[in-house]
Amino acid sequence: MNTQKTGSLIAAIRKEQNRTQRDLANELGVSSAAISKWERGVGFPDVSLVEPLAESLGITIAELFKGEQIEESVDREYESLLSDVVKVSADEICRKKRLANWIIAATVAALYVLISVITGRWEITWVVWVAYCFYRVITEHIFKCS
């Protein structure tokens, strides 16, 4: 996968469609700076954005990865396989984020309890921080890995 070729393809198709970077960014829910990075080949879209980006540009995932439009039709089974790989990768990243947030929340809660036990001071602030940590974890779960 060549980020320069993919970036050039994104820019070319976006311009053919008479769309600005801001238009594409708004559609995908990212910043126009992110679109600029992709188009310059400095970065590549997050795995969770690959399928929506390809759909928005009217190309296949295979074409996006290859960095060029493919003249012959892409085998539907191949494209379906790529789509499944992208979804599995995004799900795995999401799962790891959730796990990390649970570990952080539990660690922060344990530290506040430990500090309170050692110092003998039970202040309301630790309850607020613990509640906030678990609030973050729960809302991330509800909103599917923000």
UniProtKB/TrEMBL annotation:
InterPro entries: Cro/C1-type_HTH, Lambda_DNA-bd_dom_sf, WWWY
Domain HTH cro/C1-type: 10-64
PANTHER family given in the database record: HTH-TYPE TRANSCRIPTIONAL REGULATOR XRE (PTHR46558:SF11), TRACRIPTIONAL REGULATORY PROTEIN-RELATED-RELATED (PTHR46558)
Keywords of the record: DNA-binding, Membrane, Transmembrane, Transmembrane helix
Protein name per its UniProtKB record: Helix-turn-helix transcriptional regulator
CDD domains assigned to the protein according to its UniProt record, in alphabetical order: HTH_XRE (cd00093)
Annotated TM spans: 99-118, 124-143
Superkingdom to which the source organism belongs: Bacteria
A Pfam family of this chain: HTH_3
